[in-house]
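Regression report. Comparing outputs from two consecutive submissions.

Submission 1:
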Amino acid sequence: MIAEPDVAALLAEEFGTLSDLIRVHARQRPTKLAIADDERQVSYAELDRLMDRVAVALQQGGTRVGQAVASVAYPGVAQALVYLGALRAGAVAAPIQPSATPEQIAGMIADSGAAVVFLDAANANALIGQTFPAEVVMLEDLDGWIAPDGATPKPVAVRPGDGFNIIYSSGTTGVPKGIVQSHAMRWQHLSRNTAAGFDSAVTLLATPLYSNTTLVSFLPTLAWGGSVVLMTKFEARRYLELAVEHRATHTMLVPVQYQRIMALPDFDEFNLSAFRFKTCTSAPFKPELKRDVVTRWPGLLVEYYGMTEGGASCALNATEHQDKLHTVGRPMPGHEIRLIDDDGREVAAGEIGEIVGRSGAMMNGYHGRAQATADATWISPQGARFIRHGDVGRFDVDGFLVLTDRKKDMIISGGFNIYPSDIEAVLAEHAAVADCTVVGVASEAWGETPVGFYVPREGSTAGTGEVLAQVNARLGKTQRLSALYQADELPRSAIGKVLKRELRDRLAAGEFA
C-alpha cells in the first residue's frame, strides 16, 4: 500500500485545494479539534463529513460550480461550515459584512449572484423588509437543512484561476466592490506559511470571516491541521480568558484590539506563555503599542502590510526589529513594491510615492466591474501588472517601508499636500488624548482644511481649546487644525479602521457643533 503524502508535501506542490487538505486531515488526525466557538466544537473527521453534507445540499439546491454562496452572520462554527462546504461544492464563498446598511447588504447579495444566502438570527432581524434574489437559510437551522449523514457531493474539478471567495470592500456609500480571490491566490497564502507552525497551532480569532484579516490566519490553520477558536464578538477580557483556557499559540488581531487588551489593568496576570505567533494588520499600528506587546506578551509579533486585492505584502518582525517599529517592514519574498508619482512614473530613491505592488497573490479583479479593476491597475514600463494599494509611502535606507497616508485621505489645502497621519502622530502624543483621527473637510478659503477628532484620556482635565492650541503649536503652518472636536469614541469598522466619512457626515449634520 502506498503511503499517503503528508500535508507539508502536498502544500509544497504547485497547486492544490484547501478542501482536499481537510480531507487528508480527516483521515490522518480524525479526532483533532478543527474549529470551535462558544457553543460548538467539531473535529477534523466531523468537519469533513459536514462539509460534504453542506456541499450536497448546495448542489441539490441548484448552486452551480463557480456561483457564489452568501452568508451574513457573526463568526462561528456554522458560518465556517457554510464557507468550507461551498468550496467543496465548487462554489465561491461570499461572506458579507453585517455592519453594512441593510440596503448595502441586499445589494451585495444581489451583486454576488448567490442562489442562497445564510443568515443568523441577529442579522435576519436586522434585515427585515429587505428582499433578496436568493433562497434564505437560517444558520440556526443548518443541521436540518444539510444533506443526511454519509451523503457524498459530486466531484468538481477546481482550476487555479477559479474563484475561491468574494470579499466586499468596506465602502460607506453605495454597494461595496466585490474582490474576487482565486484558488491560486489562496494556495499562495497557504503554502507560504511553512515556518509559522500552524500544524500545531491553536489559533484564537476575534475578527469576522468576511475580512481577509481573519482569513489569512483561519485558512492556513486548517490547511496545516491546527485548531481554530472563533469569537462571535470581541471583548478584551473574554479574549484573554479564552486564550488561557485553550492554551492559544497563534492569533491575528487588529490594532484597536491590541490596544484594549493591553490596557486591561490585570493583563499581566493572565498566563499567555503558550503564545508563539501573534500578527496584526488592517490599520495603523502605533510604534509604542507594538513595543508594549513585544515587551509584555510572549511570542513573536509580526505586522503585515498589504491589501485584500493582493498586490504586494510587507512583513515586520517587530520582536527582532525594534528599531523599525515606525515602519511596516520589508516586502515579503516574491513580492515587489514600486513607488510612483501622480503621472505614473517611479519616484527617486527615498522619495514619497503612491504604492503599487505585484506578487503571485493578486485578485482576479472586482466582481462585475471591469473599469474599477482597470482603475486599480498600474502597468510598469516593462509591461508587468501591479495593483495600486491606495497608500502613500517611502522606503528608508534599509528597505523598510514607511507609510505616509492613504492617498484618498490626503488633504490638499491651499495647494499644499497634507498627510493626516502626520497631524495624528502629534495629536496622539498629547497627554489628554486617548484616541484620535484627522479628516479633510471643505473650505471656501483653502479648498480643504484639516479637522481633528479625539477621545479624551480618562482623568484628563484639559479642555479642547487647550489641546488644540498646544497641538497646533507643534505643527507646520499649513498643517494646523482648523477645528478639534471631542467624541466619546471614534466610529470604527469591525476590523478597526476609523470610518472617516461617517465623521465628516456627522460634522456636516451639526452633531459636533
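Submission 2:
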Amino acid sequence: MAQTEPLPSPAGAARLSGIPASPGVAIGPVARMAAPPSLPERRPEAGKPEEEADLARRALGRVADLLDQRAAGLTGEAAAVLGAQALMARDPELARRIGEHTEQGDPAAWAVSAACGAYQELLAAAGGYLAERAADLADIRDRAVALLLDLPMPGLPDPGVAHVLVADDLAPADTVQLDTERVLGIVTRYGGPTSHTVILARALGIPAVVGCAGAVDLADGVLVAVDGDAGTVAADPDEEQVEHVRRRAERRRALLAESTGPGRTADGTGVALLLNVGEGDPGKAGAHDSEGVGLLRTEFLFLERTDPPTVEEQTASYTALFEAFAGRVVTVRTLDAGSDKPLAFAATGQEDNPALGVRGFRTSRVHPGLLTEQLAAIAAAARTTSARVRVMAPMVSTPDEAAEFAALARGAGIERVGVMIEVPGAALLADRLLPRVDFVSIGTNDLAQYTMAADRTLGALPDLLDPWQPALLHLVGTVGGAGERSGRPVGVCGEAAADPLLAPVLVGLGATSLSMSAPSLPAVRRALALHTHSECRRMAELAVAASGAEQAREAVRAVAHPEVAAW
C-alpha cells in the first residue's frame, strides 16, 4: 500500500515537533496560559515566624478546599487526581517544612515556595508515581503564592472563542476543567507520553501534542494546526493547509462514526477491543461500544485512606462494575501499590528508588492480607454476576511469581488468572511464564521505562519512552510469540494500544486484545479493519527492524492503508 500525500507545508508556515499525545487534528487560534505567579525581587520584612507559618498554612488550606470543590463535581480518574492533590496541600510534612523556613526569617509566600521546591526535588528523585506528583505540587505552590501575594490565581484562559490551548504544562486542576466545545486542541512545552495531561486529554478526546519545545514561541491569536497523531504543530498555515486539515478532520469523524462492533482485521482475525477503567460511573463505562474491560485499576479503593477497605466494601464496588459489563470480559488488576504509591496502612520501608522496589505483586511479600482479601472480594462479586471476570497481578518478574499468584487466585475461587508483563525479565522468559497462567497483558508504559532505563515521568527523555522504540516492540513480539506457541491470549493495556497506526503492529507482534480509553476505540477499530493479519505482521517486522522510534513509525506509515497513514 502506498503512502498518502503528506499534509501541505507551505514555506511560510513554522512547523513544530513534539510528542503525539492524544489523537486527532484541530485548527484554531492560540490562547496561552498565563505565567504562574512569581515572587517579587524585593522581599518584604517578615512578621513573627509563627504568624507567617499560619498565613502559609491557611493559604494551603484554601487551595485544598478549592481542589476538593472541583473534585466534588467530577467522577473517575479526574476526581481521584484532584482528591490526591488536595491531600498533598494538607500534608503535615509540607507544613513542617514551611515552618522551618519561617523560623529562618522567610515571609509566608517565600516559605511556601522554598518548601514546595525542596519537596518537589525529593519527589522527582524518587521516580515513578511520586515523581509524577512533583508537577501537582508545583500547581499547589503557585496557587498558594497567588493567594498570599494577592495575585491572579493560575487558571485557564478565556479568549471568548474556540481555541488551541498552549502552555508550558497543564496541572490536573486545570485539565479537568477543559470545555471540549471551547478547547479544540492542546500544545504543551513540557510533559511526557504518560503524564496526567495526556491521560486526561485522551479521556476527553482532545487532540494534543506535548513536549513541544517550540510552543514557547506561539503567541496569543496565532492560527495553528495541531496534529495529535503525528505530534506536529503548524503555525500560520495558509488556506490550502487549513482546508486540508478541516477535510481530514471531517472525513475522520464520518469514518469513525461508522466504526462499531467487535474488533477484526480485514480478513476476519478477531482482536478484542477493551477499555481501561478506574473509579467512576460503572453504567457510563459499560455503555461504550467495547468488548469488555482489559484493565480495571483498583487503586482508587485503597489510596488516600488511613485503613484498608473491608472485603464487603470491595465486593460492593466490584459487583457494581461487573453488572455494568454483564456477559463481557472484565480484567481486574490487583492492587498496584507500594513504596511508589504509598499506603498509610501498608508501609514497605524507606527506599532510595521506589520504582525498583516493593510495588505491585511484591507488596504481598510484606502485607499478604491485602492481596488475599482483595481476591476474596473479587471472587465474591464474580459469583453474583454474569461478567466473565478474570484477574491479573502487576509487576510480576519471574515464572515462579506467576505460579504463586495463580495458586492464590485459583484458591480464592477465580478461574481465569493472568499476570502483567511490565518487567523485561518476565518478557524474556515468557515461554516459561505463560504455561503457569491463562493469559498475560503487556503494560507498555512501565515496560518502556524499564527497557530503556528512562524514568517515565522525566520530561527530558520522552523519545526513549516512545512506544515505537524497536527494543520495546521486540519484547512485545517475544511475549506475543510465546502466546501463540502456548495458545494463550496476549493483551496490551498500555497507552500504546490507543495509537491507531501502532495497533496493527501490536497485532502483528501477537497481541490478541488491545485495551485503551473509550475515545480511542473507534480509530483503532477502523485501523484494524483496513489491514489483513498478514499485513499486520509485515508492519511489525518493519517496525522491529528499524533503527529508532521515528524510523519505525515512518516505515509503517509508508505501507499502511492510505486512510490510516493520513491520520
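Expected: both submissions complete independently.
Actual: both completed, but the second showed a warning that disappeared on reload.
Relevant detail on submission 2: The radius of gyration is 24 Å.
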